[in-house]
Amino acid sequence: MMSQNVRIMSDTWLGIPPETVILQPYHEFFTYKDIAMLELRPSCECCDLKLPPDSPEARICTFECTFCRDCVDNILHGVCPNCGGNFVPRPIRPASKLGKYPPSQHRVFNPECKKT
Q: How many other CB atoms are found less than 10 A from the CB of residue 44?
């Protein structure tokens, strides 16, 4: 039985007749483990400054290269040295989720970054 909030736009979905498709709300279909989570790397790759999960100073690119605000602004000038992309503030994972979904302990450090 289809939910009143869900509508299939064509006669078939992936070649399956609509009457055989079982639709569930998103939250019943996926768990946090099914969804990729940010690693929340622990430090700046350029200066090795500690960046705890709740740090407003952390910046990431689309590949989650992690740098502090100072290095992004003053050394890298807003361009990731690894991929050439831009940076955005790293989201802060709620403290209530850190126990079940802890931040990464994997440090990435490249002292050559300061020389660019």
A: 26
